Amino acid sequence: MKQHPEEQNIRQNFEPGKISKDGFLGGDTRHIHDIIREDQRTLSRLGLSREMVAQRLQWMIEEGKKGLEGVVDKGDFTIQVRWARGMVSCPFGESGLHHKLMVTVFLKKLTKEMKYTQLSVHMIAEHGFFGGKQSTYRLDPEKLGLLVELGKE
Ligand SMILES: [Zn+2]
């Protein structure tokens, strides 16, 4: 498939050092639309929508903020939110800035940790983008399924 010149420009935003030190692709050479499409398929198979997942991730941010950068214990998991100075733009190139906020969720039973940012939630909600394979902040849809399950009260 031929790439539109604008898409070429957007792709640069995903490379390391442009918006994020590590970039958003982690060496994944697939076209961004193909990455999105594959994750969308996984989500559908799990019976999830990106809105459900984004809402859940945002809820964790809101709960985590209550800890004022300390660890918030929610029973099956803990949440910690840390702030960094400044704002960050979205690699998809539209206008608007996002807080540099980093969340760590620790799933006790699985002894698994997930890290994401406010920008990750935005990219899932608005663009269906979960990150390239092996990228630092990739949120694997399969793992996100666990988070959504845990949250059912
Ligand atoms: Zn965006």
Q: How would you describe this structure to a colleague?
A:
The protein is α+β, with helices and mostly antiparallel strands and 153 residues long. It has one domain (5-150). Helix content is 39%, strand content 22%. It has 5 helices and 4 strands. It has helices at residues 5-14, 32-45, 50-65, 118-127, 141-150, and strands at 71-73, 77-89, 97-107, 112-117. A 4-stranded antiparallel beta sheet has the order 1-2-3-4. Helix 3 runs antiparallel to helix 4. The chain is globular, with a radius of gyration of 16 Å. The relative contact order is 0.20. The model has no long low-confidence stretch (mean pLDDT 90). Residues 90, 92, 94, 122, 126-127 line the site of zinc ion (ZN).
What does this entry show, briefly?
The termini are far apart.
List strands and helices in order, with pairings.
Blueprint: H1 5-14, H2 32-45, H3 50-65, E1 71-73, E2 77-89, E3 97-107, E4 112-117, H4 118-127, H5 141-150
Antiparallel strand pairs: 1-2, 2-3, 3-4
Helix pairs in contact: 3-4, 3-5
The protein binds zinc ion.
The count of domains is: 1
What's the mean pLDDT score?
Answer: 90
Low-confidence stretches: none
The helix tally amounts to 5
Bound small molecules, deduplicated: zinc ion
Secondary-structure class: alpha+beta
Computed CA radius of gyration, to the nearest angstrom: 16 Å
Which geometry do the CA atoms define?
globular
Strand content: 15-25%
Major beta-sheet overview: 4 strands, antiparallel
The termini sit apart by 45 Å
Cross-sheet strand order for the largest sheet: 1-2-3-4
Helix content: 25-40%
Q: What string, H for helix and E for strand, traces the elements in order?
A: HHHEEEEHH
Number of DSSP strand runs: 4
